[in-house]
Amino acid sequence: MTCRAPSADTRETDDGSGAVRRLAPHARRFLARRSGVLVRLALWSLAETGQAFLVGHGVARAVDQGFLAGDTRRGLLWLTVALVAVLLGAPVIRGVFAELAGLTEPLRDGLVRHAVDRSLGPAAAGGPGGTDRAAVSRLTNQVEIARDSFAGLVLTLRSFVFTAAGALLGLLSLHPSLLVVGLPPLSLGLGLFLVTLRPMAAAQRRALAADEALGDHAARSRAALRDLTACGTGPAVARRGAQLIEDAAAAARVLAGWAAVRTAALGVAGHLPVLALLLAVPWLRGRGVTAGALLGAFTYLVQSLLPALHTLMTALGAAGSRLLVVLDRIIGPERPEPRPERTRAAEPERAGGLGSVRAPAATRTEPALAAAPRPAPGAGGGAVTARATAAIPRPGDDAPHLEGRPADRARTAAVELRSVTLSYGVRAEPVLDSLDLCVAPGEHLAVVGPSGIGKSTLTRLVAGTLVPSGGEVRVDGREVTGRPPAELSALRVLVPQEAYVFSGTLSDNLTYLRPGASRADLDAAVDALGLWPLVERLGGLDAPVRPAELSHGERQLVALTRAWVSPAPLLLLDEATCHLDPAAEARAEEALARRPGTLLVVAHRLSSAVRADRVLVLDGTDAVCGTHDEVLDRSPLYRDLTGHWQGGPARRR
Question: Where do the ABC transmembrane type-1 domain residues begin and end (predicted)?
């Protein structure tokens, strides 16, 4: 396995024109199929046009034909018309929202279907693929962003078009000169805003990509802290993180710059028309524009045109850019991640001797390894072969003699994995890929490797709590998959990192897996594991235990002692001594190794690996197995881990 800084996914950072071209055909088809909804939405919006027209027109007529003409009643009547037009906006908005659901909900459903098809389609077709990390985000967050942004855009675009139409008709009806004064600054602000759309979209894309890259780097680094420390690549990862932070900050500064330009466009469109109208009052009066018409023009600008324009520009700048980016990610072309090439040689015949490991998906050949120098009584040592080695004798064939094992004596493996593959998902990368492993009865095997490489997965597979995607797992010659819990408990004991201790007496906890254990058995277990200080502190084996009052190390000692008492012939320790000090860990592992049966330990200290008969190194591409010295010579990863455990570089022996 190579430890390196996590790389960020590359993201498209164009100005958005490519996304527009890609999405335009989809948008046209979507809207064409919903022409009826669009027509009904337009009919409701026509009422909004009439509302905008009547508000300004009513104010102008109230001034000119009412109050300035000395007819107060007529003036109040025109103001009442304007008020009624405002009040009628409520049912109009209600009708608009009722029709809006006919656009937004089909969009959401279509995006969900597309996201599901894009994620699961290749897997269902049996094609290769890795983990689609973005699938959950597309199905949840991104689909909802697209739905909400689309709804906001439809509302604001509709409102601007029909409100502007009503207001411009009103200005024209009052006096054509009003359009000459108010329309140019309004168009200038809108044009300046439209010019910023593409660069703003590009800046938002870059900011989003930088933020995703930084988040992905942080998540990967946090998950691989132990590996980065073991491989000495922490400083490089830190430098990469600092660069990503600088990239994100630079993208944010560019985005802020374009946001300032957009704010200027809003200012031009929102304030310049009013200022131009005020400055042009003498000229307008000279052309016969009445006081009522001027007041009506201000009403059109302040109450209708400028608010609608401000809402449109805000929505296009925020929701529009966001919708464009999200839709392109959901229905745009896939950006496949590069996948490493995996080579496979011809399948060798299955190993027949005990203690062999065949590396999964090997990319290099490994020489055959001699037998371990410390085999269990009557058990064979270990050999490691890669997938490209010569055929291995089948069970029953005349196999070469291994040290400590008579050739004429057939033995049942304590643990045997036959081409075991495990993937967490149909398209996910395998955690274990075609792994063959044989552990002899009475053998002590230590499993090492970086975090997340599959060590805990291996123990769960052997324990029968995890079903392999392919292959077969056997314990004491019996397949574990599908066996009831009672039968599995008789075959093995799995002690995880987080030890389980329940409320009750200490004796109840220790005899949980063997209720008929005698007091002499318990005394022997307590003495072997060094549990007497805890027993004395609690007040004896029959004293009550409160799990919350025990330290992590004390809980682990209780769980290890319970495993020692168990009659199961196989013990699986998944970093079950990580909270013990080195001396306590050594005493516990040595006691469990002396116990009749087989011991498989996921090691987190060098001493655990040295104490074992054999060491199995998992590094993602090869599985290397042998004694400590042999694996140290053959596995670069193991040398790196050993150097980390020892506080310095490991020596090749």
Answer: 136-307
